[in-house]
Design a protein that fits this description.
- The complex is a heterotetramer, with two copies of chain A and two copies of chain B.
- Chain A contains three helices and seven strands, in the order βαββαββαββ.
- By secondary structure, chain A is an alpha+beta fold.
- In chain A, strands 1, 2, 3, 4, 5, 6 and 7 form a seven-stranded mixed β-sheet that branches.
- The longest helix of chain A is centred in the C-terminal third of the chain and has 18 residues.
- Chain B is α+β, with helices and mostly antiparallel strands.
- Chain B has a single domain, classed as Beta-grasp domain (Ubiquitin-like (UB roll), Roll), CATH 3.10.20.30.
- Classes of the chains: A alpha+beta, B alpha+beta.
- β2 of chain A pairs antiparallel with β2 of chain C.
């Protein structure tokens, strides 16, 4: 089983979360928390689109997995590449843990750090064109080094 | 030659540059007006590790990546 | 659609979470977070068993739903009555919200308050018998009034 | 007559009592040795609302519930 899964286009939420639950339910974890991100219809967009830089995403994910395992937890993640229409999902993050409080803390911290640091670029789909979501994007560490 | 990748919305073909540290890459880009706009907000990775200093040495065959601001999910 | 669902025996996690996702995905919420509680095999139990006092559970749930709606969010919950074997689920709580941070805060606070205040009694199943989980249980407000 | 329910692990049949406030219910239970063990940890609901004072009036047909410590999920 891969813990980090990337797909072209929208995620098949039910297939993914059902499979994760089946894989995890007999591992004696007490809590399974998937976070499902759904594309909102707002500002006249027809959807979102994503570019991913996989090598750094994998490094980032692996460093979180090490943190999770140190506390007996385990992380799973799926993300879309390319276009994702409104009302479909582009992102699922999940944690399993023997303990409820650890699971709740991890899903919060993991998702927030994902938003700040995962090397993924978001575009609004407007009139069939990709428009970089610059205002909603976050500077990475060391930004501006070459200016 | 080190390879430079322009990720996400930078949307440019990779280039190869003959440099031994990142300060030289900064110098190399100084006349690229369009890129200058981006460089103020781009992070820099050397072989897929984010870098915070211009003093870092660059070897031949190293990969340098420019990463604009991110927004996953 | 019922927002609070009670079932005899273990929860059909996939049926429930799939149905909730389908019901919610076109409502323009941006985040859907189910918390799935799974019975752990520990201390020699074969499972857990539950009694529920429904009138107060409904009041408790309704008060949380009002809080959620005030912030544009919506809560869903399913819980088991009776016996639930190890490695199956007895409890699912979920939140949907336009905003990620509100969803993450609600799933944490809702689940924690559920543990402290929902009128549900837990028993370990040991050698086919129900043993009240007294040490893991929480006093309700006003406890000891008649002592 | 008010009805008294014994919930969860209390596991007793409901009873009917002729009282006008909760202080009288406390008095009514005072010789029930087994129940005394539970009363120190039980909360009390009147018509499905948790109560924190013995002064609360009890009407005929009211429902009083005794709730031991809880643990859902």
């Amino acid at each position: 089983m891969m813990a980090l899964e990337l797909f072209d286009g929208p995620l098949h939420v039910q297939e993914i979360t059902n499979r994760w639950f089946v894989d995890m339910c007999d591992k004696n974890y007490g809590a399974f928390i998937p976070f499902v991100g759904i594309v909102r219809d707002e500002d006249g967009i027809s959807g979102l689109s994503f570019d991913i830089y996989e090598p750094i995403l994998k490094n980032w994910f692996d460093s979180w997995q090490i943190k999770a395992k140190a506390q007996g937890a385990y992380l799973l993640m799926a993300h879309s590449r390319g276009d994702v229409p409104n009302h479909t999902s582009s992102y699922i993050a999940a944690v399993v843990s023997p303990q409820r409080k650890i699971a709740l803390k991890f899903i919060n911290d993991f998702v927030e750090d994902f938003k700040a640091n995962a090397p993924i670029w978001k575009y609004d789909l407007v009139d069939g064109k990709r428009v970089y979501a610059k205002e909603r994007s976050h500077l990475l560490i060391g930004a501006g080094l070459l200016k | 030659m080190a390879k430079v990748e322009f990720l996400g919305p930078l949307s440019r073909e990779s280039i190869e540059v003959d440099i031994t540290n990142l300060a030289q890459l900064k110098e190399f880009f100084k006349d690229d007006i369009v890129l200058q706009e981006w460089l103020g907000i781009c992070a820099v990775a050397l072989n897929d590790t984010l870098i915070c200093s211009l003093d870092v040495k660059v070897e031949p065959n190293d990969k340098i990546s420019l990463l604009p601001p991110v927004c996953g999910g």
